[in-house]
Amino acid sequence: MELNETLKIKEVQLAATVFARSNLIADDLPKIIFIGRSNVGKSSFINKIINRKNFAKTSSTPGKTVSINYYLINREFYFVDLPGYGYARVSKKEAQRVRELIATFFEKVKNARLIMMLIDSRRGFMASDIEILSRILNKEFRMLTVLTKSDKLRNSELVTQKNNLQKEYGLKVITFSIKSKDNDEKREEVLKQINQAIME
Predict the structure, then answer these.
(1) CA separation for the pair 148, 124 (Å, rounded)
(2) Within-domain flag for 7
(3) CATH of the domain at 83
(4) Cβ distance 177 to 41 under 8 Å?
(5) Across-strand partners of 77?
(6) d(Cα 119, Cα 39) in Å, to the nearest integer?
(7) How far apart are alpha carbons 54 and 43 in whole angstroms?
(8) pLDDT tens digits for range 113-157
(9) Mean of the pLDDT values across residues 64-86?
């Protein structure tokens, strides 16, 4: 594929569901990583990007996804879905396990090509997001910030939120909503970003 082409997702399979740090995949295949607070809409976003209904399981109970899920795409690279973080109703023991799992993942991950950090557009960055962001920036990973649920804000509010993140943190930011009429165009934009990250 060419650098600026849209990625074509032909095949998706669940390669691994990991709960323990010792079971993290350590191979050299490229990895596109998805991370965000619980209930940010991560599973719905992944399903839209891979164009599969309910492949990444969505839940009405925030914090239910407490594993790292590896989806093998086209038998060439992974989408890595990290557990949601920052939800208060998760037990302290479980929250600590999730934090340690995520921290170990970032320490050991090989060939991470792009991290998509999903942020609820209505709330912006919160303390738990800043904590995760500091780990990512220290590693100098390539990043794309996705403002989810963008249909919940007026356009002027969305522009302000986007500009603030770009100026304050130097992040590349796009907006996205599962319910928006232009989400097919946004999907194409995301797939181009993924393709560039893999090809470069």
Answers:
(1) 10
(2) no
(3) 3.40.50.300
(4) no
(5) 73
(6) 10
(7) 8
(8) 999 999 988 888 887 888 788 777 777 789 999 999 888 888 888
(9) 89
Structure tokens at 142: 């390539």
Distance CA 106, CA 101 (A): 9
- Partners of 189 in the β-ladder: none
DSSP letters, 53-74, are TTSSPP-SSTT---SEEEEEET
Task: Find, among 17, 73, 31, 75, the residue nearest to 50 by Cα.
Answer: 73
Give the amino acid at 194. Answer: I
Residue 1 resides in a domain: no
3-state secondary structure 150-169: HHHCCHHHHHHHHHHHHHHH
Please report whether residue 5 resides in a domain: no
Q: Which residue has the tokens 């023991």?
A: 93
What's the 3-state SS for 15-55? Answer: EEEECCHHHCCCCCCCEEEEEEECCCCHHHHHHHHHCCCCC
pTM of the full structure? 0.89
Task: Using the Cα atoms of residue 59, residue 120, residue 156 and residue 144 in order, give the sign of their dihedral.
Answer: negative
Q: How far apart are CA 195 and CA 8, in angstroms?
A: 9
Domain count, the chain: 1
Residue 114 inside a domain? The answer is: yes
**Domain limits at 129?**
12-199
What is the enclosing helix (H) or strand (E) of 183? helix 183-199
